[in-house]
Design a protein that fits this description.
The complex is a heterodimer of chains A (about 160) and B (about 700). Chain A has five helices and five strands; from the N terminus they run ββαβββαααα. Chain A has about 160 residues and is α+β, with helices and mostly antiparallel strands. Chain A has two domains: about 70 residues, Roll (Ubiquitin-like (UB roll)); about 70 residues, DNA polymerase, domain 1 (Orthogonal Bundle). In chain A, strands 2-1-5-3-4 form a five-stranded mixed sheet, covered by helices on one side. In chain A, α2 packs across α5. The longest helix of chain A is centred in the C-terminal third of the chain and has 16 residues. Chain B is α+β, with helices and mostly antiparallel strands and about 700 residues long. Chain B has 18 helices and 28 strands. In chain B, the strands form eight sheets. In chain B, strands 9-10-7-17-14-15-16 form a seven-stranded mixed sheet, sandwiched between helices. In chain B, strands 12-21-20-19-13 form a five-stranded mixed sheet. Chain B has a four-stranded mixed sheet with strand order 23-24-25-28. In chain B, α7 packs antiparallel against α8, α13 runs parallel beside α17 and α16 crosses α17. The longest helix of chain B has 28 residues. The chains are: A alpha+beta (about 160), B alpha+beta (about 700). The interface between A and B is large, with 53 and 60 residues.
């Protein structure tokens, strides 16, 4: 048994104990109380569990916690301070980019990573960045518009 | 006396729907539940409009058996038309009762009074009273009379506006679903599912499963129903995964690999019914056109697998669920678990998108089953993705045959539609049966239904939904082959039979137009007397510049039209596709007449979502079977449309605010399938009549040509 794993989650140092093979998603939801990252398939095929690991969008549902020692994890809860919305989240509300909303927290993660490296993505670039995410309600166009809108907002900042 | 809507007849007391207990807040109770479509936002708009309050004042109670009106299932695109019309009448009457009370007290005519965000005004001045200050004086424990006139639509300020979804902010910031409700001391559970209907668990290496779990688990078993429980969710996930591989099953009815294919469907034992109307007119017998269409079994494929919580304490069972029908679920949970329904409370909480009868009710049963064997714990059951694909109800595969005898003007003088289909509705309570998956595996399973029937035609039909084309057909014959004994668990998937029927009818209309040598839209219009139908067809054609565009190499447009259930919203769709080795959907235009639209942006979202989902069904989807079980049990083996495959979509609503609201959540799917199919047929010069229009089918068609 190891002594556990130290990582950064949403800017805070956390120490995770126990079995190093348990998936990050279970740790986030059950041990750290961060339930915005969602279980969809458990096999990295739908994107509902997407988080940033050292800034890169990564599936959390099958990612062993032992592989994350020293790394920085950002979940949807980390995209904005509690009680406020990031420009990206606000853009999703402005475009009403959701129906059931189950896929959105993962999509926001990939969108945030895209905008961090390219604040003015084309529709094709947005689609490519989100292609690992499934949405069943058919909100894709609204989501792509919201990402473009957020990029314009972020880009317009001084 | 007005005829009251069914929801109001069933729940006549005004106070059931509306009350003012908390200062500044209005409690609105509905039996309808949010399943991802924004229905609660729209219902709130209707209530706020009639009460003259800000929508922000509403506190909505939805789908809770102790307090909500009983309103059946949230299904069939009925919520706004039926629950919404009840809420409108109730709120108009509540408003009138309060105004009458104030007018009496002030000895002034009602006409001198107005309400502004819940506060009463006389001659434009606040009188210092509001709903809350006089709520105790106005008795709402009385049946609705239905005699208070709702506002005329021309006075609407809230209805008809695109109010933001009430629930969306929570969903872009964090926890918002039933999946997220577990208390810290929850008992996690996972189920072992039978791999095909009626399978018996012959052997099961418990010790190996416990080893695989990696932490202590308990195994709860009754008959062929097995649950793994633990304080550690990872342990039960691993146990369930291991057990799935280790369990040995025998008996039951194993679906063959051909299940869902047209020839298999036609070969199933059937109960037949024929409905004939009209008489042949004109010089029939000139030409006969016949074609047969099909779709495979489809799965609803929600992104979030079903989840439920349950707690059994002091002889009372509480269940949290994302079921579409909490009252029916309560009744049948009680029946299957041998408990007094009065001791069962069922509370709706939001799940992931629901596009039909999914596994929500089954998960609720699973949680209740475990909870009753582990009292005083909150039990959380989470379905696995694999079980969602293989054990949840599926949308029925169908074959639809069409035959038209054309008159001298190439119009159908005699029309026959012949449908082969398993049933489209096996929700809890239907056919007098619990229809709860876990219950069927118990030692004392509830008795199966004596006879399996589909949704009745007058309730919108199951396989026969939209079987009757809306066109002017002097003579119509429906042959319905109901297939009650298939080794696949079928139930309601968005649109039910309408999807395949509209795909077939609207594909066939193109074939008839081709036979007649006419433009497909012009041909449709020549057979459409319904003015609202004509208007959506003409509008969609205009949006896409149908008559001004010519097809060029590899790219073409197709048309599709239907009025959902022949009584809900009208939708006409134009699809533009490119076809190389596969179909690339480029653009879609849709025109819709849904009568009074409560929330235009929400309505557009529903129509667009339906178009994209239908595109996915049409181009990609079909359940596959192998080795006597479902083989397509992952997103890899059951692919759906991705972001990069989604077309740009334009939607226009016909202005019809003085017409009753028409349900629209399922209106765009059938026309979309037909529009895509027709566009592909025009591009290829050959028609593929079996869905989905996959790369393999396109390639086979192209090769067959050469």
């Amino acid at each position: 048994m190891s002594n556990g794993y130290d990582l950064i989650v949403n800017g805070n140092s956390v120490h995770v104990q126990g079995d190093g093979t348990k998936p990050l998603l279970s740790v986030l939801r059950n041990e750290l109380g961060l339930r915005g990252s969602r279980f969809g398939c458990g096999t990295e095929q739908c994107g509902a569990c997407m988080v940033l690991i050292d800034g890169e969008p990564s599936f959390s549902c099958a990612r062993a916690i032992e592989s994350l020692a020293g790394k920085s994890v950002t979940t949807v809860e980390g995209l904005s301070p509690v009680g406020s919305l990031s420009p990206l989240q606000q853009a999703f509300l402005d475009e009403q980019a959701g129906q059931c909303g189950y896929c959105l927290s993962g999509i926001l993660i990939s969108a945030a990573a895209l905008l961090a490296r390219n604040p003015t993505p084309s529709r094709g670039e947005i689609a490519a960045a989100l292609d690992r995410h499934l949405c069943r309600c058919g909100v894709h166009n609204r989501i792509m518009r919201a990402v473009a809108r957020a990029g314009a907002l972020i880009g317009a900042r001084p | 006396m007005t005829t009251l809507p069914k929801s109001l007849l069933d729940n006549p007391l005004l106070g059931t729907w509306i009350s003012f207990e908390e200062a500044g807040r209005v409690r609105l109770a509905t039996g309808k539940v949010e399943i991802g479509q924004g229905v609660l936002t729209a219902l709130a708009q209707i209530a706020a409009e009639e009460l003259d309050i800000s929508p922000a004042r509403l506190r909505i109670v939805s789908g809770e058996t102790p307090t909500s009106p009983r309103e059946g299932f949230t299904s069939g695109s009925n919520s706004i038309a039926i629950s919404g019309s009840s809420i409108r009448l109730v709120c108009a009457e509540v408003r009138a009762l309060f105004l009458r009370y104030v007018a009496d007290r002030l000895a002034c005519p009602i006409g001198a009074l107005a309400i502004e965000d819940g506060r009463f005004l006389r001659a434009g001045r606040h009188i210092g009273q509001d709903y809350w200050s006089i709520a105790a004086e106005v008795d709402l424990a009385r049946p609705a009379a239905g005699d208070a006139a709702p506002k005329p639509p021309s006075n609407y300020r809230i209805v008809g506006q695109s109010l933001s979804r009430l629930d969306l902010a929570d969903k872009v910031t964090g926890a918002a679903f039933i999946h997220d409700l577990a208390p810290d001391d929850v008992l996690h559970a996972r189920m072992l599912r039978r791999p095909w209907p009626g399978a018996r668990l012959a052997d099961f290496d418990e010790a190996a499963v416990r080893r695989a779990a990696g932490a202590p688990i308990d195994i709860v078993r009754d008959g062929d129903l097995v649950a793994f429980t633990s304080d550690d969710e990872v342990a039960v996930m691993r146990a369930a995964q291991s057990a799935r591989g280790l369990a040995v099953w025998t008996g039951g009815a194993r679906p063959p690999s051909a299940a869902g294919e047209p020839n298999w469907i036609r070969a199933q034992r059937a109960r037949d019914r024929i409905v004939e109307t009209g008489a042949v007119v004109g010089a029939a017998g000139n030409r006969v056109v016949e074609a047969s269409f099909s779709r495979p079994f489809l799965t609803y494929g929600s992104i979030g697998p079903s989840c439920a919580l349950a707690e059994y304490r002091d002889g009372a069972l509480t269940v949290w669920t994302h079921s579409q029908g909490v009252f029916e679920l309560r009744k049948w949970l009680a029946h299957a678990l041998h408990i007094d329904p009065a001791q069962v409370t069922v509370l709706h909480r939001q799940g992931a998108g629901c596009y039909g009868h999914n596994s929500a009710d089954d998960a609720a049963f699973d949680a209740a089953f475990v909870a009753m064997r582990t009292p005083n714990r909150t039990v959380r059951v989470q379905w696995t993705r694999e079980d969602e694909f293989s054990a949840a109800p599926m949308g029925s595969a169908m074959v639809v045959g069409l035959r038209a005898v054309l008159d001298a003007n190439s119009r159908p003088a005699d029309w026959t539609i012949e449908i082969w289909s398993p049933v489209h509705a096996q929700r809890p309570g239907m056919n007098g049966s619990a229809n709860l998956l876990g219950a069927e595996a118990l030692t004392d399973a509830p008795s199966p239904p004596a006879e399996i029937n589909d949704v009745a035609d007058d309730a919108g039909g199951g396989a026969t939904r939209n079987a009757q084309a809306l066109y002017d057909l002097p003579r119509h014959k429906l042959v319905h082959h109901l297939l009650p004994h298939v080794p696949v668990r079928t139930s309601s998937l968005r649109g039910l039979g309408a999807f395949a029927n509209v795909f077939a009818i609207e594909s066939f209309m193109d074939e008839l137009a081709e036979t007649a040598g006419e433009d497909p839209v012009a041909y449709r219009l020549s057979l459409m007397s319904d003015p609202r139908g004509r208007q959506v067809i003409e509008t969609a054609a205009e949006m896409a510049d149908w008559f001004g565009t010519t097809a060029h190499d590899g790219r073409a447009r197709g048309f599709g039209f239907a009025r959902y259930k022949n009584r809900a919203a009208y939708a006409a769709v134009v699809a533009e596709v490119e076809v190389d080795e596969q179909v690339r959907l480029r653009r879609v235009w849709a025109a819709v007449d849904a009568g009074l639209v409560i929330n235009p942006d929400g309505a557009a979202n529903q129509i667009e979502g339906g178009i994209i989902q239908a595109a996915s069904w049409t181009l990609k989807e079909g359940v596959r079977f192998a080795d006597g079980r479902v083989a397509s049990d992952s997103w890899e083996s059951y692919p759906i449309l991705h972001f990069s495959e989604v077309p740009e979509i334009d939607i226009r609503f016909i202005e019809a605010r003085h017409q009753p609201t028409l349900g629209l959540g399922e209106a765009s799917l059938g026309p979309t399938a037909a529009a895509i199919g027709n566009a592909v047929a025009r591009t290829l010069g050959r028609r593929i009549r079996a869905l989905p229009l996959t790369r393999e089918r396109i390639m086979a068609t192209l090769l067959a040509e050469n």
